[in-house]
Amino acid sequence: MTSRQTRTRDRSDRGIPEATVARLPVYLRALHSLQDRGVATVSSEELAVAAGVNSAKLRKDLSHLGSYGTRGVGYEVEYLVYQISRELGLTQDWVVAIIGVGNLGRALAGYGGFASRGFRVAGLLDADDEIVGEEISGLTVEHIDRLEDIIGERGVSIAVIATPAGAAQGVCDRVVASGVTSVLNFAPVVLSVPEGVDVRKVDLSIELQILAFHEQRKAGGPDEFDALDGAAPKAAAPPGPPPGATPTQYVEAVEA
Amino acid sequence: MTSRQTRTRDRSDRGIPEATVARLPVYLRALHSLQDRGVATVSSEELAVAAGVNSAKLRKDLSHLGSYGTRGVGYEVEYLVYQISRELGLTQDWVVAIIGVGNLGRALAGYGGFASRGFRVAGLLDADDEIVGEEISGLTVEHIDRLEDIIGERGVSIAVIATPAGAAQGVCDRVVASGVTSVLNFAPVVLSVPEGVDVRKVDLSIELQILAFHEQRKAGGPDEFDALDGAAPKAAAPPGPPPGATPTQYVEAVEA
DNA sequence: AATTGTGAAGATCTTCACAGCC
DNA sequence: GGCTGTGAAGATCTTCACAATT
C-alpha cells in the first residue's frame, strides 16, 4: 500500500504533539476572553479552568512552544496570545473558499469566527444555477465551473467542503488538483486524498451518535442481555441473520 | 476539587474504549453504504479502507463489541449494522431540541443525517421574537421561555446549543436543570456542567486553526527564528511586551 | 486459504509530583 | 511562597504479527 510512516509531521518538526495543537486554539480563545476583561497575567491553574483542562496538561502543552511563563508569577496574557497565534500560523491571513452553499454553507459564510482569526473567505461556490449569483455575507456565489480559476487567482489555501455527500469526493479531487493541501470537510463521507494533504472532518451526526452511546449507558447499557456470564462476551447468537426483530429500517438517507 | 476518577465510564462499563466509540459511527456509515450497494459480507480490510482506518484497528474495535465475524470469511454486513446500532443506542429514538435558530440552527434543523439515524428533532427554540413562529423544516420555532416545558413534555434527552457564545452557558444551565444530560455545543465557549452531564463540542474555527497550523508547517514553520541553536528552544525574547510588530489586532469578535 | 481475534510491543497522551526559579 | 517546567509513572491508543478458526 502507499507510504504512511512519518505521520506525526513532515521533517523539521519542532515536535508539537498533535493533541497539543488541537488544544492551542482553545487556550487562545480563553486568553482573548481574559484580554477583553483586562487581565494582564494569568496562572496555569486559572487558564486551565477557563479552557476546561487540567493545569499540568496546560503547562506541558505550553512548554512545547517555549518557556513563556514566569515562575512564581504566571503567564503574560498578551505575550502568550502572540506566541500561540504565531505558532498556529494566525499572524498571517489564510484564504478560504467554501464549496457548497446550502444551509450549512450559508451558516459558514456568515460565521464571524472566521474573519476574526485571520481566515478570509474569498469565494462561495455552488453547482446550482438558482444559487449562483446570490449575494451572501457580502460575497456573490459563483459557479463551481470556475473552481480552478478562483483557487489559482485568489490564492485559496484552505477549501471548506459543504456539498452533499455525493459531490464531495469529486470536489475534493478538483481542489487538490488545483494545489490546495488543507481541506475541512462537512460532507458525511470519508475523503481520500494523496499523501501530504490534510483533511479534517466535522460530522454532526457522528457527534450525536457518540452522545447517544453515553446517554444509553447512563440508562443502563444496551437493553437486552448485558452481563450474562462472567466469561468473555461470547456471541449470544451465531453470526446468522440478526436475532429477534428485524434490525429496523436503517435507510441510508441522502443527508445534508 | 470535585471528583474526577472513573472517567472512562460509569460502573458496569463493558469497557468500550472512548476512541472506539468515536469510530463506530464511521463504520456504521460505511456499512450502510455497502448495504445500499447490495454487499452482504465484508472483510475487515475492505471495511477498513471504506472507513479510512487501519484494518487491525477496525478488528480490535469490533472485538470490543463481541465476536461478530467469521474467520476465513469476514463480517455479515446486516448483522454488524445491527450490532453496532444497538451498541450505539440507535435502535431507539432520541428526542432532540435545537436551541438557537440562526444560520447554523437552521442548517441543523434541515440536516437529513439526524432523522435517518434515530434522532428526532422535537423543538426549535429561539429568544428572538422575529424568529419565533417561523416554520422551518416542518417545525414552528418556539420561544425559549418555554424551554423547560418543552423538554419535560416532549421527553427531550439531547440538547443542541447553537446560540451566540454569550447565551450558551445560560441555556446550558437551564437544559441541565431540566434533566438533560447530553449536550452538543456549537457555541464557541467552554461550557461548565455538573458531573454526569456529557458535553460534546463542535467548533468550526478551531478546526480551521488546526489546518492553518499544518499548512504553515508545510510552508516551513513559523516564519521567524526557527532553529537557532541546537539547545533547548530558550526564549529568544524575554516575557516582556511582544517582540517586533504589535501582535496584530486579535479582537475577540462576537462570532456566530 | 483466507480472515478473524488478540497478546504483546510500541507510540502517544495524561497526570503526578517536585526540582528549579522568581 | 508561589508557580512554572519537566522527568517519570501511568493510562490509553495503535500497530504488529500470528495463533485460532472456518
TrEMBL record, chains A, B:
Pro residues compositional bias, start-end: 236-245
Keywords: Cytoplasm, DNA-binding, NAD, Repressor, Transcription, Transcription regulation
Matching InterPro entries: CoA-bd, NAD(P)-bd_dom_sf, Rex_actinobacterial-type, Rex_DNA-bd_C_dom, Tscrpt_rep_Rex, WH-like_DNA-bd_sf, WH_DNA-bd_sf
Principal subcellular localization: cytoplasm
GO BP terms in the entry: negative regulation of DNA-templated transcription; response to redox state
Keyword Chloroplast: no
GO terms under cellular component: cytoplasm
CoA-binding domain: residues covered: 89-190
Region listing for Disordered, in residue ranges: 221-256
The keyword tRNA-binding is assigned to this record: no
Annotated compartments: Cytoplasm
Positions that bind NAD(+): G100, V101, G102, N103, L104, G105
Cited SUPFAM superfamilies: NAD(P)-binding Rossmann-fold domains, Winged helix' DNA-binding domain
Highest rank taxon of the organism: Bacteria
UniProt xrefs under HAMAP family: Rex (MF_01131)
Family designation: Belongs to the transcriptional regulatory Rex family.
Quaternary structure, from the entry: Homodimer.
Record function comment: Modulates transcription in response to changes in cellular NADH/NAD(+) redox state.
Protein name: Redox-sensing transcriptional repressor Rex
Lineage: Bacteria, Bacillati, Actinomycetota, Actinomycetes, Streptosporangiales
